[in-house]
Every structure is written in C-alpha cells, then in structure tokens.
Amino acid sequence: MAITFEEVSYAYDDRSLWRSGALEGINLHIQPGTFTGIAGTTGSGKSTLLQHFNGILKPTAGRVRVLDVPIGAQEKAPAMRELRRRVGLVFQFPEQQLFEETVEKDICFGPLNFGMPLAEAKERAKWALSLLGLDESILQRNPFHLSGGQMRKVAIASVLAMDPEVIALDEPTATLDPQSRAELAALLSKLHREQGKTVIVVTHRMEELLPYVDGWIVMKGGRTLFQGTTDALVREAAFLEREGLALPECITLWNRLAAEYGLEAEKPCLTPESLAERIAEVLSAAGTLRGREERMACGESC
Ligand SMILES: Nc1ncnc2c1ncn2[C@@H]1O[C@H](COP(=O)(O)OP(=O)(O)OP(=O)(O)O)[C@@H](O)[C@H]1O
C-alpha cells in the first residue's frame, strides 16, 4: 500500500503564464511505514507534490496511486472521501485548515465527519492536544485568537485526531519555537516507529529531520532532483549543493571529516552531538598517532 507516482505532471490553470507546470515527469515510490523528508528550493513544487497525496490536487498527466487508490479526474467522491480519512494533510498555513469558532470544534470536525460519536470525538481532541503538548484549557478558545505556534499545533492536532495511516505535513515547524520544533520532530518519529505511520514532511529545515527520516525527495523546478536514503543524500551532497540546495552543516562537516580521515565507509554522524563526539575521537586518535610517530622519529635520531 505504497504511494507511487508515474510520469506525473501538474499545471495550475494560470493562463497568464506562458508555462505553468508546477510538476513535470515525477516518478517516485514511498514505502508504507517510512518517514520521508521533502526538501528543495522555494517554488520547486514541494507543496504541489504533497497535495497529490490525498487527492486535493489531481495530476494533469500521469498516474498517482495512494494506498492502492488511484487518484485521477474520474475518481468518485466516496473513494476520495475515504482516502482523506486515511491520509491526513497538514497545510503550510494553519489558517487554511481551521475554520470553526472553537479549538474543540475544529479538532472534532474530522472525526465527527467520519461518523465518530461526539463523546469519543471530544476525547480524541483532548488526546491529540496532549500529543502536541497543549493544555485542554484552550479547547474552548477561538483558534484565530491563539499565537501562530499554538494555531499550527491545533492544525496538526486536528489531523492527528483522525488517526490517519499517512501523515503528510507542509513545513509544520514554521513559526514554532526551537523546543516545540524539536518536540514535533520527535513526536512524528515516535508515530512512525511505534505506530507504523507513514510520515511525509516538507521542510526547509532539513537538520531537524536528519536523525529521524528514512529517505529524502529533493525537488527542483518541478522535478525530482534526488530520491534516496539519508546516507545516499550525504554521498550526493556536492551534486545537490551545486544544484542550489542548502544542506545542513552536519552533512558538510561530516563529509569534510570523512574525506580528511578516510571515514567514507562509516555511517555518517547526523546530529551536532554525535558529530562532535566523533570529531573528538578522530582528533584524539590522530594526536596519539602523531605523538607516537614523533617519539619514534625522535628515537631514531636522538
Ligand atoms: N494556486 C496556484 N496557482 C498558480 N500557480 C501556483 C499555485 N500554487 C503554486 N503555484 C506555482 O507552482 C510552483 C510550485 O509551487 P509550490 O508552492 O508547490 O512550491 P514549493 O516548493 O512548495 O515552494 P515554497 O518552498 O515556497 O513553499 C511555483 O512556481 C508556484 O508559483
């Protein structure tokens, strides 16, 4: 029950542009139960790609299948409705997602819409809020009177409350403070590891997801520049940088360390902590070696 794209193109109906193709010839495969990051420069087509995952956008050409459901112009409304229950999509701007006058109504909307009894939906709302570290006291507040970060968390909670199989999020950490960003990345990783969710995240902050994701899709100009594992991404760093992708410093530093000290065969260290530790080990080993060489040289000549 993977997500597959075959030769997919999508053009917004913008007749003022000579060429309005937002996606062109996309082929990709996302395995169920994996954690995927989508990166790429501004306007490269990341959001457009994401919105194909639950059929909000349908391909202009090519074939998309999500959880065995084909997504095309001819697909019937009930099939699309069912797909939206199974694939939760968090939009780039929370305002696109929230519309009720209280947080509780907003989070309960999806579960109620899919037939959950009210009492159960309210329990779900509390559960989803607690996952995001929000207090129940905000349930009766107007979502549009919350801070930007709280609003974003409510938008995420409204999707998690549906308990979807696939969770697709468009820049979910924008407007969150550093602690909330780290907590959200860890929560998504937990949902992926412990509940087998397929998690897909569009991000401009690759470093936040590096330790967690299985693989990456990198977009450029409506096309996929790269699809592969994090290790492969690290190996392709020079190519991706030449293509204009700003990579996390950890990757750049690791590659320099690996080239300098012959560590290319090792698994890359992708957090500042693990990288610092490995640098210290390497320098210490190099220092010991140099000391021994100096002593030996001294022994020979002294
Ligand atoms: N509603 C729309 N109508 C017409 N063109 C659009 C629309 N939405 C996006 N586009 C165009 O499609 C292309 C891809 O946009 P998209 O938002 O998918 O890129 P993105 O990689 O998510 O960008 P960002 O990182 O800035 O969010 C851009 O050229 C954009 O101008």
From TrEMBL:
The keyword Membrane applies. Residues 3-246 form the ABC transporter domain. Signal peptide: none annotated. Keywords: ATP-binding, Cell membrane, Membrane, Nucleotide-binding, Translocase, Transport. GO terms for molecular function: ATP binding. Its EC number is 7.-.-.-. It is a peripheral membrane protein. The keyword Secreted does not apply. It is found in: Cell membrane. It is an enzyme of class 7 (translocase). Its main location: membrane. Forms a stable energy-coupling factor (ECF) transporter complex composed of 2 membrane-embedded substrate-binding proteins (S component), 2 ATP-binding proteins (A component) and 2 transmembrane proteins (T component). ATP-binding (A) component of a common energy-coupling factor (ECF) ABC-transporter complex. PANTHER family: ENERGY-COUPLING FACTOR TRANSPORTER ATP-BINDING PROTEIN ECFA2, HEAVY METAL TRANSPORTER. Belongs to the ABC transporter superfamily. Energy-coupling factor EcfA family. This is Energy-coupling factor transporter ATP-binding protein EcfA2. It comes from Paenibacillus woosongensis.
